[in-house]
């Protein structure tokens, strides 16, 4: 690893070089991000998951850059064109774009207009014209007329020379850097509807005639315009003003005012339109897409994290209902560990309306299976089914909870569901998923492709590899933050435990099925193919309740058991007593246990864990109820204040379920009484909020909501308004006399 990379990463992340190098060593040894941030704080200087992930991702980028440099150096060497100066420039390149700019003149090409002109012997003419000396251009061009080479006139000779000059200009690395900056800083997205598609493209109406700077365009609008273009509804351009681009090129290339310079200017215009503009626009589109993807992925992963870490009901018997009208309500009874005890269908809604019969069945199941909560999916007929259940006069301790069922149908048709319930149909599996989501959202949602959970923004438009990597990181982070009970966890949940993965997760479940529950963490080593490294990475995140050693149910890593046992021995207590007594723990003097391998950060973590061994870090479950009598959009009135629950957060606002089968949008400008730039400043997924109805558009199924304390207060004018166009910045004329300027030009272009 290049030591300069350590320095670069340390500088970018504002941490020490040693923290970077030691973290990279751990990653290269196969350690996971959760393990490093939780159990190797002495090594990394207490870096958190975000910092460790940033180091991992950045070092991969730099290694990819190094590989590309090696390939380019090899290619240029084989051509016999590598100079010490070029090698130095290649070595100093810090981005792929700069690296490719330097390689462009040496890159194997298809047959271009310039190569054809060179074959006609026109390169000497191009070289003389490009010097911009004063001479008779037409007379010089006449020398190159050669019918056998298909050069029949002076103009044909000049055209070929311009083709060669255009390619020289296009391949100049310094010019490309400045042009790239112009495209990014001053480029504009210009979106227009394709004529004749106005009605068909109505969902893109906002972009029928839209202009905004590339540099500041938010993620959701970039992805929306690109999707509209892909679906052949919109025409999208993303360039700066052509005059500004040409002016920039002329300032860098034109050094005289004569006939030769006029030919160079013509070559510049041709270069821009034919070569540089398409190339730069492609790059800018990739740049803006990458930036939009990163923002969308960030939004998605943050939503997913909040959803996965939603408060669990816990191990209690649940009756789950997947509501419906004509086909009835699929109903299942689940035991405290989520096991399926019973399934059936009831018909309390239209058209059957078997209310008495359905009610009797629900009451019977509640009593027979000691049901503590009833989970109702929030899809079709949910509010009607909720009203029916609440009318039954069930015992007060039985909670009635509406559960977000996004993705339940995906789960029910998946191989995971078929493996779990091979003898049951889709409807039973879907109802089971709804019930288990209430009991433990994390354990159930890991079984579903994260993109199907319903908390993303343009998730199918972003880079899928980057999205999947980020989502996997998020799921792994959440799973390991909570910890996993190894004796009840599904294969899918175990897959995300640090150091395991699908193959070892399957082996653990297989071993558990054949040998019964694990009695200790050390027994995990008996699982086939689970070696010392995997055990080291996973053990601290696995829990075994009721184990002989109480630390097996905690986040204390087995490698630290000896330290805890010594602590207990030093105060004449048992480990179990130490874990129960604040008074005993206060007797421990941590500095007495610092060693070469165990420092204060780990000791402090151990003491924190002993005070709450194995405690779930998620919030306590609270029941939420929608407003009674407000079940459909037609029940809404502007000005109504309603309880709601945040279902999805985007960078332009948050969507809120208010119980009418259509989420409403609280725009960023309506989220707080103060100015905010990011919805995450004030809301989280699953948060309970009170909203005011501002707008109801039944035809377009749109509901506008506000979280302001006085949303109808008159807005004061803020001044300005509209989108102002920014003028391109003017570049200063290079200093020095004309001779110096000409020397500079020759140096830049090497001609």
UniProtKB/TrEMBL annotation:
GO-annotated molecular function: mRNA binding; structural constituent of ribosome
Highest taxon of the lineage: Bacteria
Biological process, per Gene Ontology: nucleobase-containing compound metabolic process; translation
Domain S1 motif: 639-708
Pfam families: HHH_3, HHH_9, S1, Tex_central_region, Tex_N, Tex_YqgF
Gene Ontology CC: cytoplasm
Region: Disordered, residue numbers: 705-738
Record-linked PANTHER family: 30S RIBOSOMAL PROTEIN S1, S1 RNA-BINDING DOMAIN-CONTAINING PROTEIN 1
Name this protein carries in UniProt: Transcription accessory protein
Biological source species: Anditalea andensis
């Amino acid at each position: 690893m290049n030591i300069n990379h350590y320095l670069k990463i340390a500088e970018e992340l504002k941490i020490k070089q040693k923290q970077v190098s030691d973290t990279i060593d751990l990653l290269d040894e196969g350690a996971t991000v959760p393990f490093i941030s939780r159990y190797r704080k002495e090594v990394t200087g207490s870096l958190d998951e975000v910092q460790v992930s940033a180091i991992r991702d950045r070092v991969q980028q730099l290694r990819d850059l190094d590989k590309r440099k090696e390939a380019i150096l090899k290619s240029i060497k084989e051509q016999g064109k590598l100079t010490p100066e070029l090698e130095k420039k290649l070595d100093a390149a810090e981005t792929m774009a700069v690296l490719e700019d330097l390689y462009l003149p040496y890159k194997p090409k298809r047959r271009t207009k310039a190569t054809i002109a060179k074959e006609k012997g026109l390169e000497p003419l191009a070289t003389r014209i490009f010097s911009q000396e004063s001479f008779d251009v037409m007379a010089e061009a006449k020398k190159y007329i050669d019918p056998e080479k298909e050069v029949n006139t002076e103009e044909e000779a000049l055209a070929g020379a311009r083709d060669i000059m255009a390619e020289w200009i296009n391949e100049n690395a310094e010019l490309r850097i400045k042009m790239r900056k112009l495209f990014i800083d001053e480029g504009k997205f210009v979106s227009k509807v394709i004529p004749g598609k106005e009605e068909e493209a109505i969902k893109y109406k906002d972009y029928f005639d839209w202009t905004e700077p590339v540099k500041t365009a938010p993620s959701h609008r970039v992805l929306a315009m690109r999707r509209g273009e892909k679906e052949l509804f919109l025409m999208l351009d993303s360039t700066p003003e052509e005059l500004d681009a040409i002016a920039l090129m002329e300032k860098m290339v034109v050094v005289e005012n004569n006939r030769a310079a006029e030919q160079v200017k013509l070559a510049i215009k041709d270069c821009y339109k034919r070569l540089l503009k398409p190339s730069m626009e492609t790059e800018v589109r990739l740049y803006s897409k990458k930036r939009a993807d990163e923002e969308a992925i960030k939004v998605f992963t943050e939503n997913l994290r909040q959803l996965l870490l939603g408060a669990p009901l816990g191990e209690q018997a649940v009756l789950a209902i997947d509501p419906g009208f004509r086909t009835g309500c699929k109903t299942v009874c689940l035991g405290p560990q989520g096991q399926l005890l019973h399934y059936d269908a009831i018909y309390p809604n239209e058209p059957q309306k078997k209310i008495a019969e359905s009610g009797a069945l629900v009451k019977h199941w509640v009593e027979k299976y000691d049901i503590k909560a009833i989970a109702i999916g929030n899809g079709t007929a949910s509010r009607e089914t909720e009203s029916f259940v609440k009318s039954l006069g069930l015992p007060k301790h039985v909670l009635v909870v509406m559960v977000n069922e996004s993705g339940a149908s995906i789960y029910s048709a998946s191989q995971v569901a078929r493996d779990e319930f091979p003898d049951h149909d889709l409807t039973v599996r879907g109802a089971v998923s709804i019930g288990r989501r209430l009991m433990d959202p994390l354990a159930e949602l890991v079984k579903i492709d994260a993109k199907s959970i319903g908390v993303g923004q343009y998730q199918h438009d972003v880079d899928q590899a980057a999205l999947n990597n980020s989502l996997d990181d998020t799921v792994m982070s959440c799973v390991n933050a909570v910890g996993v009970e190894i004796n009840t966890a599904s294969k899918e949940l175990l897959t995300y435990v640090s150091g395991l993965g699908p193959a070892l997760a399957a082996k653990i479940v297989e071993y558990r099925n054949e040998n019964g529950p694990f009695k200790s963490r050390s027994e995990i080593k008996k699982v086939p193919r689970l070696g010392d490294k995997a055990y080291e990475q996973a053990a601290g995140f696995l829990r075994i309740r009721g184990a002989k050693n109480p630390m097996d149910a905690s986040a204390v890593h087995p490698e630290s058991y000896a330290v805890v046992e010594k602590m207990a021995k030093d105060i004449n207590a048992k480990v179990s007593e130490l874990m129960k007594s604040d008074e005993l723990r206060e007797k421990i003097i941590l500095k007495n246990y610092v060693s070469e391998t165990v420092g204060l950060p780990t000791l402090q973590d151990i003491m924190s864990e002993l005070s709450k061994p194995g405690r779930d870090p998620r919030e306590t479950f609270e029941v939420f109820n929608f407003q009674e009598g407000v079940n459909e959009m037609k029940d809404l009135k502007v000005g109504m204040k309603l309880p709601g629950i945040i279902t999805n957060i985007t960078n332009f606002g948050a969507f809120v379920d208010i119980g009418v089968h259509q989420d409403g949008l609280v725009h960023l400008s309506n989220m707080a009484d103060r100015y905010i730039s990011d919805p995450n400043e004030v809301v989280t997924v699953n948060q309970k909020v009170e909203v005011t109805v501002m707008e109801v558009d039944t035809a377009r199924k749109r509901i506008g909501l506000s979280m302001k304390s006085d949303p109808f207060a008159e807005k004061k004018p803020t001044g300005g308004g509209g989108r102002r166009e920014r003028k391109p910045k003017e570049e200063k004329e290079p200093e020095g006399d004309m001779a110096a300027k000409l020397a500079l030009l020759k140096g830049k272009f090497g001609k």
